[in-house]
UniProtKB/TrEMBL annotation:
Chief localization: cytoplasm
Keywords: Amino-acid biosynthesis, Arginine biosynthesis, Cytoplasm, DNA-binding, Repressor, Transcription, Transcription regulation
A Pfam family it matches: Arg_repressor_C
This protein's name: Arginine repressor
Top-level taxon of the source organism: Bacteria
Lineage, uppermost ranks: Bacteria, Bacillati, Bacillota, Bacilli, Lactobacillales
Single annotated GO MF: DNA-binding transcription factor activity
Gene Ontology, cellular component aspect: cytoplasm
Organism: Alkalibacterium pelagium
InterPro entries according to UniProt: Arg_repress, Arg_repress_C, Arg_repress_C_sf, Arg_repress_DNA-bd, WH-like_DNA-bd_sf, WH_DNA-bd_sf
Amino acid sequence: MKKKERHQLLRQLVQQEVIQKQEDFVDILQKRGIDITQATISRDIKELQLIKVPAQEGGYQYNLPPEMNYNISKKLARLMKDAFVSIDTQKEFVLIKTLPGNAFALGTLIETAKYQEVFGCISGDDTVLIICRDEDSAERFQRRIISFI
């Protein structure tokens, strides 16, 4: 697994699960078939600037740094201005083309934003396919994205 993909997965994990120790990351990733060491996780935590916050069950858990927890719209707008190439719709599908290397981040931001129109998305290197709930949702979502440009 490439570093960028691993970092994205770690970001998702801290948002979805209670992870209290570096070993928790290692265990979760190994259960998913990803061979990883605690030393690699330690470096990733530093690079991602993960922080520990009080956990509801007691103790502490890893979390994203504060600036990553909010203002998705601002990040989405900045990414769209910097990397947008084109957008098109067909029925309930929206296809966004970006400069190479930017689509994965865009797809992650779209999914993190949890837009009502979006059922899910698939990201590649320079393309994001967004599956909307219906044709009207696809048109609304396209207008939303264009407003960021």
